[in-house]
């Protein structure tokens, strides 16, 4: 019998990187509501409420038991008064937030690939309230990414199943083997964490030949294009040589060569048929991200790109508890004034004095 008293709650650690969080979320009812609030608060510059709700959701996701009432949640870290109220009245509070907030259009707008909070806000302020209004407005200028976001909206907003992600992995793997037989491709992001569902598929591509990582992505994109599978590409060449690491700014993007793609996934490649592939067409659009770090930075890239709030808390833990700076490039010990090398993710956890967590335990 599982105890749900304070004794058990006292074992909930304050940082997500100290908790094992699988995809088996026992408090989805509450975390879904909290995540709507997180998304809603992304509109504002004030990060307090967003961070607070986001951390509370992470804590609830890690619990091995289902919360039945507000009572007994006092001892949980990061679960404040507002979250406890939400737990108490989740039914109507959730509906209120989702159905009655005027800014729900903002959440709709940011669901388009290429549309971030700034653009969504701009459109909202212009009085635009629907996709058809945006597309009909002669003064709205869509960039290439947004044009493709709208063009493939139905497919992309559907997300991908794990079976579809495996099919994408096979396509990308074959492509890389053709153009760069010595390169290695590994799955990262949500599907590495064992998620059954995701909004894209993320891969790290590496090679042991120094400097060659920067030519990999153009080769791969070229081959995808030849096969008629490349619907959209945005390539960002590496700026690593120009930058200082580790990034001083928390949550900064990394400097590696990377590309954001929309690929054509043929239904015949998906085991079990791929229910999301429209029958008459035989293919669907999928979002794919590729990143190509130099081999000596692989462990840091892998840890960073595996993602979720686990990753954010790992950086915060490093900074606050260890006086170290962690990002997708490196781990820097400020007291010793030196970089700490790592070949595997386990090395990084060890440097931080944390128990190793498997990728499927990082679904914070
Ligand atoms: N990432 C990044 N820079 C980007 C995009 C992604 O560094 N421009 C890295 C981040 O480290 C992020 C990880 O890729 O944590 C995964 O991001 P994302 O694909 O958005 O999230 P997932 O966790 O994979 O979830 P899903 O795709 O299912 O939404
Ligand atoms: Mn992803
Ligand atoms: Mn995402
Ligand atoms: Mn991604």
From TrEMBL:
Q: Where in the cell is it found?
A: Nucleus
Task: Give the protein name, as stated in the record.
Answer: Deoxynucleotidyltransferase, terminal
Q: Which UniProt keywords apply?
A: Magnesium, Metal-binding, Nucleotidyltransferase, Nucleus, Transferase
Q: Which residues of the full protein are shown?
A: 124 to 487 of 487
The organism named in the record is Neogobius melanostomus (round goby)
Q: Which GO terms describe its cellular component?
A: nucleus
Reported cofactor(s): Mg(2+)
Coiled-coil intervals: none
Question: Is Magnesium given among the entry's keywords?
Answer: yes
Reading the lineage from the top rank, the first entry is: Eukaryota
Similarity remark: Belongs to the DNA polymerase type-X family.
Q: Give a GO molecular function annotation for the protein.
A: DNA nucleotidylexotransferase activity
Residues binding Mg(2+) are: 200, 202, 289
Q: Name one GO biological process term.
A: double-strand break repair via nonhomologous end joining
- Report the principal subcellular site: nucleus
